[in-house]
């Protein structure tokens, strides 16, 4: 019998629905069908095996927050966050350390609010109260002075004498080979002189990369030539150049952060990779760096002016920027190292001044 009803079947005593389905299913009665079983825990584990996913270790490492303050920007009406006195600088540095910055990078300003490039008297006057109030802090200082070839030794030697060790310059900033910083050439020879002197005197070289070719120079002229002995190497990507077109465009700023972090990791195996985000896009680049596992992030009003890339709200306080960085890192599950001794151990540094 055909399972389909003909027109003559309708209303003429033809087969009913039950008989039709019996023919379709080999005379199996609807009454004999069991309902579908409940979706069990074992079935859920089979079809949704989230418990079998391996950990992803990209963010499974600590991060050190470095505070860059007060920097070089003009203050006053232009940028009220810039301090106008020595006391303001001290107070905001203390609050930044209390907000979670284990390291500080300070360009001191005089009582008229003018930046002083290599005034070690002023730098010590500002850092001492910070040590007194906070107990300890890691210092990443710019020790080089201007000359036809940048002099990396004289200023650092003076700071080492003042601190009877490296208190005021535990990490020394090394700028890229070939760069003219404030009119000074940062040549390979001056940089080699710097790293030899730094490592011999307990100062950790903190390398800044402005572009990919700098990594090649670092690897070829310093690491391959065995100029560096004090590992891990601290290599920080300078993504905060305010004149950089790349760091002010989306999505290129994000691509730049990702590609350069992994370029350093794959090129220099024994390295701690840092990120210095700046400009309009400092906040998204900071987040991208934290997601990509950057181990040092530098934030502060030296590199930032606008709080958000899409709004014209100015950064109000340096310590609030530090607090934001710490909150984002912890929200992402990153461990923020706030203890200076732990930070130095992680970065391969040591403290050589009397306690």
UniProtKB/TrEMBL annotation:
The keyword Chloroplast does not apply. Residues 15-25 have a biased composition (Basic and acidic residues). It comes from the Archaea. Residues 1-10 have a biased composition (Polar residues). GO terms for molecular function: metal ion binding; transferase activity. Keywords: Metal-binding, Transferase, Zinc. InterPro entries: Aldolase_TIM, BKACE. Signal peptide: none annotated. Its cofactor is Zn(2+). Residues 1-37 are annotated as: Disordered. This is 3-keto-5-aminohexanoate cleavage protein. It comes from Halorussus aquaticus.
């Amino acid at each position: 019998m055909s399972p389909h009803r003909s027109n003559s079947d309708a209303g003429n005593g033809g087969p009913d629905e039950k008989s039709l389905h019996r023919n379709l299913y080999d005379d199996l009665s609807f009454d004999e069908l069991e309902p579908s079983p409940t979706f069990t825990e074992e079935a859920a584990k089979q079809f949704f095996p989230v418990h079998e996913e391996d950990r992803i270790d990209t963010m499974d490492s600590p991060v050190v927050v470095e505070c860059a303050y007060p920097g070089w920007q003009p203050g006053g009406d232009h940028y009220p966050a810039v301090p106008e006195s020595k006391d303001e600088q001290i107070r905001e540095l203390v609050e930044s350390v209390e907000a979670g910055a284990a390291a500080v990078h300070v360009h001191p300003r005089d009582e008229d609010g003018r930046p002083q490039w290599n005034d070690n008297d002023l730098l010590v006057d500002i850092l001492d109260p910070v040590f007194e109030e906070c107990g300890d802090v890691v210092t990443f200082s710019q020790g080089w002075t201007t000359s036809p070839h940048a002099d990396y030794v004289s200023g650092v030697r003076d700071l080492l004498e003042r601190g009877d060790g490296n208190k005021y310059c535990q990490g020394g900033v090394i700028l890229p080979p070939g760069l003219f910083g404030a009119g000074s050439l940062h040549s390979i020879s001056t940089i080699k002189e710097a790293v030899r002197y730094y490592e011999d005197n307990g100062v950790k070289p903190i390398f800044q990369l402005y572009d990919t070719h700098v990594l090649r120079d670092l690897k070829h002229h310093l690491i391959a030539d065995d100029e560096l002995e004090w590992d891990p190497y601290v290599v920080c990507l300078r993504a905060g150049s305010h004149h950089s077109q790349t760091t002010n465009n989306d999505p290129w700023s994000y691509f730049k952060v990702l590609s350069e972090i992994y370029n350093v990791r794959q090129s220099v195996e024994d390295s701690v990779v840092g990120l210095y985000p700046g400009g309009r896009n400092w906040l998204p680049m900071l987040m991208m760096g934290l997601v990509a596992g950057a181990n040092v992030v530098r934030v502060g009003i030296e590199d930032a002016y606008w709080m958000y890339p899409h709004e014209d709200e100015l950064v109000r306080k340096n310590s609030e920027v530090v607090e934001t960085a710490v909150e984002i890192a912890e929200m992402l599950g990153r461990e923020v190292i706030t203890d200076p001794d732990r930070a130095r151990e992680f970065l391969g540094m040591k403290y050589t001044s009397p306690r």
